[in-house]
Amino acid sequence: MSDILENTIEELRLDKSKWKLTKFGDVAIQQKGKIDRDNTTLTRYIKGEHMGSEDLHIRKWGDLTDEYLGPAFIRKFEKGDILYGSRRTYLRKVGIADFDGITSNTTLVIKANEEKIDKRLLPFIMMSEGFTENSIKNSKGSVNPYINWKDIAKYEFLLPPKDQQAQLAKLLWAMDEVVERENETLNKLKDAYYTSINQFMIHGNYGSGGEIIKTKCGLLDKRIDVIKLKDCLLEKPTYGANASSKPFEDGSLRYIRITDIDDEGNLIKEDKVTIDSKDYSQYLLRNQDFLFARTGNTVGKTLLYDSKMENSVFAGYLIRFRVNPKKLNPKFLFYFTKSLKYETFKRKMIKVGAQPNINSEEYQSMILPNFAIQIQQELIDKLDFMKSNIDSLKSKISSSKALQKSLINQVF
């Protein structure tokens, strides 16, 4: 279906000669309904953090019993309303509510004026480059910039006649459906991937028929021994450089910080920096070096460095481990750190205080299933295959989203 849509978009030739320059405020209505939280049957609320960037679907929300909400949460929204994050509008937080609820007064609640516009089209106008640029340009404040309704209402764009609106809305939502179906498949693949990791860390390659016992590494097949990470190292772990960073230039070393590693253990490509020091030789990374984040809200993040990556050094909030490949395959260690066993280890080790922390000695005390190298490789091969399917689908979803964005901006 995505191929058909792609061909349709390529063949789309829009004659805008009969389109009318229209103000956003003429086709959209701001909803200002307030509620008394002490006297309401509404149970769910939406914060700005519940809304995804460039995602029309509300996938998260809170319950009024979850936490204290400040007095700003008085705005009522109804199913079908469009929610727009008026702060930091460059994030493009536009979501369509699929239930009645409450939000704060910094989230604009918008309905379509259905006398003038097909309501299915309005959210895509709000996702367009022109609408976003207008919001950014007219935002006020520097630390937490925001935009007022009156400035949004003044935004002008070309609006097609009603019959064309329906056709365009149908095409745009068909494209959205493609992305949603791909996301559903991705979630299923991820579930299978993480389920497999956890099963392998309990059963190894024995399958699920063996006797399970409680060990220092949690539940394990009785036939599996355990080993400490400390006993699998070539040398003592090394803490990263305390040097500051400077803008990255072609040919320079990359300076890897905690913020450069995502939750899945990938090296983020954007916002690269280099080290602002000439004394960095002891921090140079080599193939199969393993990094653990040691402090902050991201404590426990991991990265397996590969020589195919850029030449790099690592920063002070990271610890480098060099694993003995005759005892522990670094890739197997990487997959272990994606398991529930590792999550349990982190919770036990994180110190209560101003900053969560796991030091070098504590990481070395981590206990893993002690599989033969050949078995480790068998499990790695299976997980690599699953991960490659996930990565391929992620790439396909990125292409679909790019196509969707292209279509939106072609229309508006």
TrEMBL record:
Claim: Transmembrane is one of the keywords in the record: no
Domain Type I restriction modification DNA specificity as annotated: residue spans: 17-190, 249-394
Source species of the chain: Maribacter dokdonensis
PANTHER family the record matches: TYPE I RESTRICTION ENZYME MJAVIII SPECIFICITY SUBUNIT (PTHR30408:SF12), TYPE-1 RESTRICTION ENZYME ECOKI SPECIFICITY PROTEIN (PTHR30408)
Keyword line: DNA-binding, Restriction system
Similarity comment text for this entry: Belongs to the type-I restriction system S methylase family.
Name of the molecule in the record: Type I restriction enzyme, S subunit/type I restriction enzyme M protein
Domain of life (superkingdom): Bacteria
Residues spanning the membrane: none
SUPFAM superfamilies in alphabetical order: DNA methylase specificity domain (SSF116734)
